[in-house]
Amino acid sequence: MIKDKLRASHEDLEVNEVTDGEYSPGLIFSLASPSLFNEPRLVIIGSASEGLAEDLEQLLLDPAENCTIVVRIPNLVGHNGKLKKQLSASALNVSCEEVKKDVDRIDFIKREFQRLETPIDLPAIRALVAAFGSDMGELGAACDQLSNSGALKISLVEVERTFQGRVETNAFKIADAALAGNAGEAIRLFRHGFATGIDSVALTAALSMKIRQLARLFNDRNAPAAATGMQPWQQDRAIKELAGWTEPQLIELVQLAAQTDFDVKGASRDPEYSIEKLLLAMAKSGQ
């Protein structure tokens, strides 16, 4: 939003972005210094790093003309906490509350694409939430990237083509394959995800969450979505997935998920085997 507003006033805006961990002491002075024609400048820094607080404090003694500096503070740990405390009185602080619900992430994506004047369909929105929902910064960047792809309308195919690795290794896609009874696809996606760095603990947590959602619905399939923690479309799909399930199967699956969580947190020397065992059990249930 800041970038768009500045560009609306200054078409020649010069933008420099420093990603998390890339800042080095003194870099801000180079980025903030005016060019030959003193074009307006925007400097975006992903998070606080060593020396940034001191550099900004010094820069504020003699502010650079036509330069806007934005620092993202994702938490208050270490340098981030120091920077927030040190500059709270001399900088504009914008508090961004954590987005916890998928419905809010969906609304965010819709607003972004309206702002970017690019149409997007609902399956594509859901795929973006599944792939990037844990990081709003990455989600916003993904929206920008898709908008600049040249596609007349963003579809699920476009999302999967652009972010193939991210979408394919997503925990919920693995869970969906298992619950659809497609054990081979679930194992393939898991092994691909494991090879590209998927977090075993986070994956197991996602699988356990899906199983708990099914357990909530098993005895009350008319439960309101608010009670199950699912979106209506997620609940409709979960009810279909429950077809053919028995209570003993579900109890066994809940127990196996708990054991898998224990294994991936250090109880087993082969946590990958435990996850594959859980995926196979999920695929077998209901058949």
Explain this structure.
- The protein is elongated, with a radius of gyration of 23 Å.
- The protein is built from 16 helices and three strands.
- The chain has helices at residues 2-9, 27-32, 52-61, 79-87, 102-115, 122-132, 136-147, 156-162, 164-168, 171-179, 183-195, 200-218, 225-228, 232-241, 247-267, 271-284, and strands at 14-18, 41-45, 67-71.
- With 287 residues, the protein is mainly alpha-helical.
- Strand 2, helix 3 (52-61) and strand 3 form a beta-alpha-beta unit.
- It is 60% helix and 5% strand.
- The model has no long low-confidence stretch (mean pLDDT 81).
- It folds into three domains: 2-87, no CATH class; 102-162, Helicase, Ruva Protein, domain 3, CATH 1.10.8; 169-284, Zinc Finger, Delta Prime, domain 3, CATH 1.20.272.10.
- Strands 1-2-3 form a three-stranded parallel beta sheet.
